[in-house]
Amino acid sequence: MNTTSPAFRDLARVLALIFLLSTLAPANVDPKKGRVTENPTSGNRYTIDQEVQIGRQSVAEVEKKLKLLPPDHPMSKFVNQLGQSLAAKAPGYKFPYTFKVVREKSINAFALPGGPIYVHTGLIEAASESQLAAVMGHEISHVVMRHSTRQASRAMKAQLPLAILGGVLGAGVGGWAGALGQMGISFTAGTVMMKYSRDAETEADMVGAQIMYDAGYDPHAAVTFFNKLKEQSGAKNGPQFLASHPDPGNRARDINNILSRFPAKTYKPLDSPEYLAAKQSLSDARPENAATQPAPDMPRLATANIASQSFKIFQHSAFTIGYPDHWQIGSDARDGVSISPDGGAQSGTIAYGVMISGFEPQTRSNELDDALRELTTDIQMTNPGLTLANSPQAFMLNGRPARRLDWLGSSPVREGEKPLRERVRLVAFPGKNRVVLYMVFVAPDPDFQALWPTYEKMLNSMRVR
Fold first, then answer.
1. Among the listed residues 310, 351, 327, 321, the one whose alpha carbon sits nearest the alpha carbon of residue 429
2. Pair 48, 195 in one domain
3. Which of 70, 146, 183, 384 has the least C-beta neighbours within 10 A?
């Protein structure tokens, strides 16, 4: 005999239906909407397997440029153990995370695509255990949210990285370096720099707070440490971490929003005895002087020596252009092209010169203004230090409609203690088959006007093929 009431049976059915619907609900990949459970894939032209492979292929070459602590060093063991405990709480695909310590006094950490993560000794010396966990959780979150390949997918439209703040250019070299260049990863003396957008930083803050909470560390340590770095950012040799991880502006608010979703809990202490002992062991692993020298500043060039009226022709499959006969073609002509005078480019950094490339807009409107907005958005996302100097200006370039736009940033050329301001001028115009071509003219702002006649002659010589 069934003694269950009809009302109870109806309630059970409703609860069962709610449970079923909850199990069928799509996983969350947006940290602003709740706990992240999966990795984002929308708009990413790389598969996760490809991302892991890029990271694996890059490790050997990247580590040639770094001085690593031996794997049996106490701090290497501690960082690996801490990293693996944090990675165990990372949502989504279980990337093959590795954690290594770089003998470098700068305050920095970085992640390669697919899981390799590196921490500088300078960061460790400046941080408590909870603050170190905050930074490592932040780097793990960049891997979880696939920021490097998402950024590269945006840049693929242009076929060269859009990291032009400070003249960073890593395009056209192919292989692992070309892949990392498209992801905004560049090399300086003794370190690797990955430029993230503020949106990516916000995501990494929020997912990092989730990982820290689940691993038992207080996510507020991220706020206190990043604020500490921000206070030091005015110095000439300020924290490299903020150069590659720009402050999104609402770090404390975003982390507090995340914590409001989770029950209160007791966190681990700021420093464990194991961490303090490992930190003490760094006294025998101070960075060597040769490895700690900052990247050399680029010299200011005399514009009278680099401006020229004597030109020769460069032929590309998509265009031809004239350029000063004593300047050099600096990248693979199959993709993006850079042209610069002697001394204008150094170690992948352009202080004086021109970059030329093209992309196929996602918008189907065939309007140049729509394409320019798309390109401008991508450039600003990958170069948060650039500020617009004017509104787009319309003009005709050899019978084709064109648009011109200027940004101001920070030049690798210094005078005294401060970098010169840099002017970056973008000119975009239609090519063939829906491709939009663009040219980027770069120089320190005080020298830009004197170089503009040379740049303008190059611009006017541009012909679409």
1. 321
2. yes
3. 70
- Is residue 298 assigned to a domain? no
Domain count, the chain: 2
Nearest to 124 by CA among 111, 137, 106, 110: 106
227-266: burial string, b at 16+ Cβ within 10 Å, e else: eebeeeeeeeebbbbbbbbbbbeebeebbeebbeeeeeee
Residue 240 has pLDDT above 70, yes or no: no
> Alpha helix locations (H) across 295-382?
303-306, 368-382
Residues 257 and 309 in one domain: no
Give the residue carrying structure tokens 């929020």.
206
Confidence of residue 47 (pLDDT cuts 50, 70, 90): very high
244, 268, 292 — which closes off a domain?
A: 292
Contact 379, 442 (CB under 8 A): no
The pTM of this model reads 0.57
User: How many other C-beta atoms are found inside a 10 Å radius of the C-beta of residue 391?
Assistant: 8
Residues of the domain holding 451: 303-464
Looking at the domain assignment, is residue 187 inside a domain?
A: yes
Helix residue ranges per DSSP H, 25-69: 48-64
366: left (phi over 0), alpha (psi -120 to 50) or beta: left
Q: Which of 60, 43, 225 is nearest to 132 (CA)?
A: 225
Are residue 248 and residue 374 in the same domain, yes or no? no
Q: Is the domain of 314 the same as that of 225? A: no
Q: Are residues 50 and 134 in the same domain?
A: yes
Is 3 domain-assigned?
A: no
pLDDT at residue 44 greater than cutoff 50: yes
Q: How confident is the model at residue 301 (pLDDT cuts 50, 70, 90)?
A: very high
Q: Structure tokens of 31?
A: 């940290």
Q: Poorest-confidence range of 16-25, 189-198, 285-294? A: 285-294
| pLDDT tens track for 189-214 | 445 556 778 888 899 999 999 999 99
My answer on whether 264 and 373 are in the same domain is no
Residue 1 has pLDDT above 50, yes or no: no
